[in-house]
Amino acid sequence: MSRLATPPRRTGLLVVQPLRRKQCAECRGGPLSLLVLEEGAPRCLDCADLGHLVFLPRGDTALTRRAREESALSAVVVRFNRRKARYERQGVLVEEQALTRAEMRCLADAEARRRRRSRDARRRAAEDVRFTDTFAAEIRRLFPGCPAERAQGIAAHASVRGSGRVGRSAAGRALSEGAVFSAVVASVRHLDTPYDQLLMSGVPRHEARRRIAAAVERVLGGWRATEAEAG
Predict the structure, then answer these.
(1) What are 170-206's pLDDT values in tens digits?
(2) N or C: which end of the chain has fewer CB atoms below 10 A?
(3) Mind spelling out the 3-state secondary structure of the chain?
């Protein structure tokens, strides 16, 4: 595997659009359209815990600024320009809800309205309601104490068609317990712990995971109990 040129140091998280075909050093998935360099090795966004973010291309300065303001976790996307021998910014990765809020703040802008309609149309076309409901039911089987609305939210997020998330993997489509468990753990990590804040403050991913492991297990332990036991 050829080495990647080292991106410039920046404040915050950095994601690279590779010029050549790359595989994730952790899960071996690929080729990667976006990757994170950790200790010189490429990681896919899921393995780098950034798979839930959406890409906002450069071009609309106001929308980009507002989306980053609204997003608890974000990353700058860069690509190497061989002719100029430097990395150039391509856009940012932000939370989907943050982007929606930013677009709402820009509704006076006709281009922002067009972006929002396009995103809504793509989302509606990508939804697979039957699979999402089945995935949510499997979450509730493995974690009887997980609130129904939370299980549905985890399933909907993990199973968006074309997203590359765990619900759309071969294991996810087969409803393997490992895939369902991974989707639940990822949701707990990002929504029920200070994990995102640790990453944004510069704590390495593995150390951040270690710090919040007990909090994740507390939530999962509560969800493993039946509703009757919890009551």
Answers:
(1) 676 677 888 899 999 999 999 999 999 999 999 999 9
(2) C
(3) CCCCCCCCCCCCEEEEECCCCCCCCCCCCCCCCCEEEECCEEECCCCCCCCCEEEEECCCHHHHHHHHHHCCCCEEEEEEECCCCEEEEEEEEEEHHHHHHHHHHCCCCHHHHHHHHHHHHHHHHHCCHHHHHHHHHHHHHHCCCCCHHHHHHHHHHHCCCCCCCHHHCHHHHCCCHHHHHHHHHHHHHHHCCCHHHHHHCCCCHHHHHHHHHHHHHHHHHHHHCCHHHHC
